[in-house]
Amino acid sequence: MRDESYPKAAIQGALPPEHVIIAFLVLINDLDVATDYIKRIVQQQVGVKAAAIQDGQNGSPASLTELFPFGHDSVFVENNLKGLESGFESKTSELINDAIQVMFQQVMKPRMRPVLAETFRDVDYLLSEKDVGEFDGQDGAEEGGQDDLVQQRFERGWMGLTRPIKRILTDQNYDRLIT
Q1: How far is CA 167 from CA 68, 114, 173, 178, in A?
Q2: What Å distances lie between residue 45 and 42, 53, 79, 130, 133, CA to CA?
Q3: The whole model's pTM is what?
Q4: pLDDT in single tens digits along all 179 residues of the chain
Q5: N or C: which end of the chain has fewer CB atoms below 10 A?
Q6: H-helix or E-strand containing 43?
Q7: Burial class (CB within 10 angstroms; exposed 0-12, middle 13-18, buried 19+) of 50
Q8: What's the rounded Cα separation, in Å, for the pair 112 and 154?
Q9: How far apart are CA 28 and CA 177, in angstroms?
C-alpha cells in the first residue's frame, strides 16, 4: 500500500492518478476481507470444539481436542488462534484507519476544494430592499433562487466526487471515509 499504490500526485499540486487510487481502494477492501476471513476461520476452528462436544462427536469435523490430544495442547492452540485473530485484526484496523486518513487527505480534500469553489461561484449574498421585502413575505421559506442553485451545484459535485469511491469501497469502509 505504501510503496506501489500510495495515492500521491506525480507532480506537486496535481491530483493522484485514477489507477493508483483504485488500486489503493482495492487494497483497503482486501484488508477488510482478510480480517473477516481470519475471524471466520478462527471462530470455525474454536467453534468445532463446542459443536463436537454437543454432537457427541459423531460425524462432525475433528475438534482441537482430537487434533491435539496431549495435555493442554488444544488449549494452547486455541489461545494462539485467538491471539492470531486479535493481533491480525488490530494491525489491519490500524492500517485501514491510516489508509482512510490518506484517502481523505490525498484524494477527497484536494477534490473537494474545486467542488466548493464551483458551488458558491457567482452567488450574491447581499440582499436588496426588494429581496428583503420578498424574503419577509415568504415567512422564512425561500423557494427557488440561489439556494436551489447552490444546492444543485453542491449535489452534482459531491456525487461526482463520492460515487466512484462508493462503488469500489465496502459500505463499512465508505462510512469510515465519510465520517
Answers
A1: 45, 22, 11, 14
A2: 5, 13, 12, 75, 73
A3: 0.73
A4: 777 788 887 788 788 888 999 999 999 999 999 999 999 999 888 876 555 555 555 555 577 778 787 878 888 888 999 999 999 999 999 999 999 999 999 999 998 999 999 988 887 777 677 766 666 656 544 455 667 888 899 999 999 999 999 999 999 999 999 99
A5: C
A6: helix 18-55
A7: exposed
A8: 10
A9: 11
Degrees (nearest 5) of the Cα angle 108, 92, 161? 15
Unique residue bearing C-alpha cell 482478510: 34
How far apart are alpha carbons 152 and 55 in whole angstroms? 61
Q: Are 7 and 16 in contact (CB under 8 A)?
A: yes
Residue 108 buriedness (CB in 10 A; 0-12 / 13-18 / 19+): middle
